DNA sequence: CACTGTCATACCCGGTAGGTATCACTGAGA
DNA sequence: TCTCAGTGATACCTACCGGGTATGACAGTG
């Protein structure tokens, strides 16, 4: 085989080993036995002429080239499965008799709710609108969904989401508010600054994941909106979130505008190389909102 | 095999057929016989549950799903070979004893010459600079080189190059000049407007390829700088190019500033997901120029 | 109505991916 | 020091499947 060709199978195998750093567990995850996996990785290293893994006593670690292949390979594997998924969708293979024209729109669950509603209504009114499947996802999951083809287009909020590697169009800029327990003293204020809410001893700031990891700090780690709402209602934390979140405030919550928080810009984003007519229509509709 | 997995081999095969629209020629290009290729495509269609090609009398054409797979598949295949190439480079597999740390920088041949010189000098002065291999390329080839891993980073000029899908940093903004045959009447002017040079009957404007194709028009199609220079010297054409091109003017050329041409912005650009230390150093150096 | 061009089918073969059994090595305890 | 557990590598076998050749089916053409 050519020296700069990789089979998808080889990528899957290497990524499994590189993530587990253990041939046995990687083989189990791949649903195969350990020896053929060892051999496949050896063949890969031999063909590339590069050592990818350091087999030292008690374990495996990545070489520099291995790090590169792990990152580049993930991107390549995502692109490959994206190709398969989008092709299947384009062919209407989702279900028998399913619509031939469908877009999957990834949205952070309960985020940008009002904007999403307006967008869907406006697009549905278009003459030859495709069917839009709304795919609710966790915080910061949109990038991965676009990359591996589970979604075609997403609503993202800068700077929470990274727009790097996607094309995008600005939709909405909004300020941020602090959401506090209604009974907390700070809830009585007309406005607050970031400094006011970031160092309250009895009310540590909630922490959101950024690119898969949580920043350090005393506050609770947040996975979804509901959990956050409950923790605030219980008086355990305070959150800084976009203005449109007022839509889901509870009775025990109080929203106070923040004077100095960075504005949140909601974008509609899609993979750079996309060029389907349905997607173009959706983007045009969104840009006219 | 899982229904949303594609083997690299299948992608190569399908893309060949989709580009040739002819099984026999595609098989020849792939260095194999036609029957196994036909069978492979059938298996692919069956596994995806999607029809990709329309085999009608006298030829083959793409279905909608086929179009999607052609585009997405090209991106995926590029990403895969990029992974292989960059891994090999990271492991120093380029040559025996070759340096472990090397970046390939794609530059339009003879473009941004002065800037490139400054960049290379400044970077070489850095304490732990990697080796930079300058890869001269044709007009608008940088994008492909970055995508399939033949290059790690490129100098691109907006709006000639499309920065979509890459991260980039602005380096230089410059105006444009018209390069004319020295003996032409227009060469005597102090300044010109785009209108002045775009409709001169005896001096049709040279045409550059944009994304692989040439815009229509009477002027000659330009492939490289030297050819352009010669055609201008012969009095056959006029070109509108960035100010820094004064560096390679011939004696028979005259440069006249254009008052209303869009400015050219040279960027340094790299694949979004890159994160090597060497690349980060080069970008930092470039941003400080 | 032969003839040509094109893709599909039938059938065969060899390479290789994957399985099982086992080895070689190393670190941890008793 | 001597097991013993844990890990990756090796040896060997089998079955599948990717690829080749020969040929068929069909349509358009002179």
UniProtKB/TrEMBL annotation, chains A, B:
SUPFAM superfamilies: Periplasmic binding protein-like II (SSF53850), Winged helix' DNA-binding domain (SSF46785)
GO molecular function: DNA binding; DNA-binding transcription factor activity
UniProt key word Transcription: yes
Superkingdom to which the source organism belongs: Bacteria
Domain HTH lysR-type: 6-63
Sorted UniProt keywords: DNA-binding, Transcription, Transcription regulation
PANTHER family cross-referenced by the UniProt entry: HCA OPERON TRANSCRIPTIONAL ACTIVATOR HCAR, TRANSCRIPTIONAL DUAL REGULATOR HCAR-RELATED
Protein family per UniProt: Belongs to the LysR transcriptional regulatory family.
Protein known as: Transcriptional regulator, LysR family
């Amino acid at each position: 085989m050519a020296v700069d060709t990789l089979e998808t199978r080889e990528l899957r195998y290497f990524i499994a080993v590189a993530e587990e750093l253990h041939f046995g567990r990687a083989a189990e995850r791949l649903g195969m036995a350990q020896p053929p996996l060892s051999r496949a990785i050896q063949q890969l290293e031999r063909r590339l002429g590069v050592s990818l893994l350091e087999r030292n006593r008690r374990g495996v670690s990545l070489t520099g080239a291995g790090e590169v292949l792990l990152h580049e390979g993930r991107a390549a594997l995502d692109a490959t499965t994206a190709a398969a998924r989008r092709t299947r969708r384009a062919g209407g293979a989702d279900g028998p008799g399913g619509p031939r024209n469908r877009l999957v729109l990834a949205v952070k669950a309960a985020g940008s709710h009002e904007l999403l509603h307006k967008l869907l209504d406006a697009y549905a009114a278009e003459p030859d609108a495709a069917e839009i499947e709304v795919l609710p996802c966790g915080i910061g999951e949109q990038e991965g969904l676009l990359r591996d083809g589970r979604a075609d287009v997403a609503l993202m909020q800068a700077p929470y989401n990274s727009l790097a590697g996607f094309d995008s169009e600005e939709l909405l800029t909004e300020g941020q508010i602090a959401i506090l327990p209604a009974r907390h003293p700070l809830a009585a204020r007309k406005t607050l600054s970031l400094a006011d809410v970031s160092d309250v001893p009895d009310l540590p700031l909630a922490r959101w994941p950024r690119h898969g990891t949580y920043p350090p700090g005393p506050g609770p780690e947040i996975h979804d909106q509901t959990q956050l709402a409950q923790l605030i209602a219980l008086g355990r934390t305070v959150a800084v979130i976009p203005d449109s979140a007022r839509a889901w405030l509870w009775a025990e919550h109080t929203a106070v505008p923040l004077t100095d928080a960075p504005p949140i810009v909601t974008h509609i984003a899609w993979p750079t190389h996309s060029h389907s007519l349905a997607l173009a229509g959706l983007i045009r509709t969104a840009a006219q909102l």
